[in-house]
Amino acid sequence: MQRWTPDLKTRDWQDTPEAAAVCAALVSGGLVAVPTETVYGLAADATSGVACAKIFEAKGRPQFNPLISHVASLEAATDHGIFNAQALALAEAFWPGPLTLVVPKSRTSPISDLATAGLETVALRVPSGPVMRYLSDRIGRPLAAPSANRSGRISPTSAQDVIADLGPSLSFVIDTGPCEVGIESTIVGLGDGTPRLLRPGGISRQAIEKVLGEPLQGASSDMRADAPAAPGMLSSHYAPDAKVILNASRVHPEEGLLSFGPDSLPGASEALAEVNLSPSGDLTEAAATLFQAMRTLDASGAGTIRVQLIPNFGLGEAINDRLRRAAAPRD
Ligand code: TXA
Ligand code: MG
Fold first, then answer.
1. SS3 185
2. What span, in angstroms and rounded, lies between the C-alpha atoms of 199 and 122?
3. CATH class (in words) of the domain with range 2-212
4. How is the chain split into domains, by residue range?
5. Is the CB–ligand 1 distance for residue 187 below 6 Å?
6. Does ligand 1 lie within 6 Å of residue 102's CB atom?
7. 16 C-alpha vs ligand 2 centroid, how far in Å?
8. Which band of pLDDT confidence, cut at 50, 70 and 90, is reported for residue 228?
């Protein structure tokens, strides 16, 4: 595995031998960890079934969940998906940015069936992180990329996180420092003509509803972005080693505390470790620090992590979704 640290402040990073080597690795079916504004992605050529199969192998995914295909622009996206007026309005409002649109797949799209899990829809995103867009544009193919972590583990927001989890499977890790948004993209499904929130994420439900002029519907259980393996079983994703307890009203000695806002919980001063997601109570800052905070608390050796109540508004909906998964029972 090679590590490449491009300097994004100048355009020069695009003309380096490393940029060329990364493109060559992608074109020949290799896996590259690519930063985006949300989390680091495990990227491969979306048009190659073999390359996409390597993603599932490296992540140790139990089943072939469909993957998000990343492209450089809305124009490129329309080569792969069919955009109705609502899809266009959302793309124009939020791309490039942390929004994924699930739309009917166009008949002529070369995106592999493994990337779409054989569905008639395709998940498309134009990230604002420039590296993924540049690579996709330069090789002229969409890049399939789930978060670059082993299945069920905490999503990576730094190159170090990726290397710890997946290093040996990768041709390259591209390191541009911590991710700005820090939580995955919001996924909106438009495949059946009704806009549905398939996964809360980096753009709030309220911002999307404002553009649509109508409320987002929920996903029926068969189309949820992280469909539970069996009815009633919440899939345990984003899981640290420690046990996670939500909506804590106090914390005990030897436990870890994930706090939020200016108010201190009873027992906080005796906690083994405390990380405050945002002392000022800012949900955007909290989203950006969430996964790193979970890693820090896990590394403290605390057997239990208690989480202070976080408002379920704006990005709080995505934060609480990830925390519920981290707290879900696991084997
Ligand atoms: O921010 C993000 O979205 C990151 C970065 C790397 O872009 N990617 C990411 O990918 O979180 P992943 O694979 O961890 O999550 C993709 C989700 C999956 O839960 C999958 O079920 C859903 O997108 N998905 C993909 N295609 C779909 C489709 N056609 N219909 C419904 N859900 C779909
Ligand atoms: Mg993921």
1. coil
2. 15
3. alpha beta
4. 2-212, 243-327
5. yes
6. yes
7. 30
8. very low
